[in-house]
Amino acid sequence: MFLNRRAELDLLEKHFASSNAELFVLYGRRRVGKTELIVQFCQEKRAIFFVSDLGSEISLRAAFSTAINAVLFGPGRMDAVYSSWEALFQTLGQAAQEERLVVVIDEFPYMVAAHPPLASILQKAWDQTLKNTKIMLILCGSYIGMMEETVLGYKAPLFGRRTAQYLLEPMSFKNARLFFPSLLNQDQVRAYAVYGGMPAYLQTIDLNKSLNDNIRDHILSRGSYLYDEARFILQQELREPRNYFAILQAIAAGKTRLNEIKQASGLEGATAYLNTLQQLHLVERVVPVTEKQPQKSRRGIYRLKDHYLRFWFRYIHPNRSQLERGGAQTVLQNQVLPEIDHYSSLAFEEICQQYFWLEGLSGKFTFLPLNVGRWWNASEEIDLAVIGEKDVILVECKWSNRPVGKNVLADLERKAEIFHRILGDRKTQYALCSRSGFTSQLIEMLATRSEVLLLDLNQILKQS
């Protein structure tokens, strides 16, 4: 099932329609949908699609030769193997002299690992031949760090040759909810909190079942696809998964600062592991939105970036003994459901952040947002600040089963005074985002105040 990715397809089509040779680099995490995106793009096009693996240099060259021959020459010459990579790229160049030819090399890092000179060979072929043809070469890879090092990095042989690059991110809530349209709005938020925006995970949702049954049957049950997915991903991407497990487990347990992570994991070299996890987009470092030099900020905290990974380390990993013995229903009833709303509150905040970005960039505000994010200091925090050049909207996001009242607004106004001491005076508006609506007293009080925006769950999701 392929849903949305309209912007990404439009970008690929734009480069396909150009009259120049194109070297398009597409990269991102495993399971984010890179291959399916390219498959959709290649439909009804003259295209050679090759997926690399962990084979030897000769086996990869033979397999790539077969893929090329099948498209260019038909079944009669499928078994012919090019004697060298140079000869292989020369053939591709000749085939793209007069007509656009799309050539996709999926999992390109595997090919470079099998034959390290390959990146330099391709660079030479591009400079001497391919750049003067009608080829559209798409290099695709999952190992983000290696893609950046091999293709995008300043010292990489192919540096400066690419005509475009795109990091394919997990889907936003607006697009992820297309996978579960029949769920009630509150359950859509909870589903996003559990599955995140990874298409491969979202596709496991059975629309004939409730969200609770999906969690039990397709995540908590031994043998299901998502039961051990986190372990498989980490073992594929990392050489020392045990230490990374300790880091991720500490963060999932609420240890968000570097010293806390070191103590909980017992790893003095935690910084290096955290850097790798950030490169893989599994962990993110968050700083207050007002920080002018985020990399140097001492207020940075770490959190798991992937929603499913967050769920896995919170509910599957620590309850493995019960789950291995068929205790999916027990863990669901005793562990997951009592905490599901507390667990989903962070996802609701992220959904609100996406909402304000989309509204601001589409011109719905009186100013253009320059940044949207959380703010905090040693004693106070504001869920979101939408910052413009001379304006700001301060936002509270309440994922509660009780309507938001006047006290929430009063507390936000109090924190605004502290916020302005740091950022300086700006034209200030307020927004309250609520799962369960607002009290009649608050609505009545705001009848004459235009600088306060009330957004219930239906309004926030209606944007989608």
Description:
- The model has no long low-confidence stretch (mean pLDDT 92).
- The protein is built from 22 helices and twelve strands.
- The chain has 464 residues and is of the alpha/beta class.
- The strands form three sheets. A five-stranded parallel sheet has the order 2-3-4-1-5, sandwiched between helices. A five-stranded mixed sheet has the order 8-9-10-11-12, sandwiched between helices. Strands 6-7 form a two-stranded antiparallel ribbon.
- The protein is 47% helix and 15% strand.
- A hairpin with a 3-residue loop joins strand 9 (381-387) and strand 10.
- Helix 9 (185-195) crosses helix 16 (307-316), helix 11 crosses helix 18 and helix 13 (241-252) crosses helix 14 (258-265).
- The chain has three domains: 6-167, P-loop containing nucleotide triphosphate hydrolases (Rossmann fold, 3-Layer(aba) Sandwich), CATH 3.40.50.300; 174-344, Arc Repressor Mutant, subunit A (Orthogonal Bundle), CATH 1.10.10; 365-462, Trna Endonuclease, Chain: A, domain 1, CATH 3.40.1350.
Topology:
Layout (H helix, E strand, L loop, with lengths): L5 H11 L5 E6 L6 H9 L4 E5 L5 H16 L12 H11 L5 E6 L1 H7 L3 H11 L6 E7 L2 H9 L11 E4 L5 H4 L8 H11 L3 H4 L8 H10 L8 H9 L3 H12 L5 H8 L4 H10 L3 E4 L14 E4 L2 H10 L3 H5 L3 H9 L3 H22 L9 E6 L4 E7 L3 E8 L7 H18 L3 E8 L5 H6 L6 E5 H6 L2
Parallel strand pairs: 1-4, 1-5, 2-3, 3-4, 10-11, 11-12
Antiparallel strand pairs: 6-7, 8-9, 9-10
Helix pairs in contact: 1-2, 3-4, 4-6, 9-16, 9-19, 11-18, 13-14
Average pLDDT taken over every residue: 92
Beta fraction: 15-25%
Number of helices: 22
Given this structure, which CATH class of the largest domain is correct?
Answer: Mainly Alpha
Counted up, domains total 3
Structural class: alpha/beta
The percent of residues in helical segments reads 40-55%
How many beta-strand runs? 12
Q: What is the subunit organization of this protein?
A: single chain
Strand order of the largest sheet: 2-3-4-1-5
Radius of gyration: 25 Å
Overall CATH architecture of the largest domain? Orthogonal Bundle
CATH T-level fold name of the largest domain: Arc Repressor Mutant, subunit A
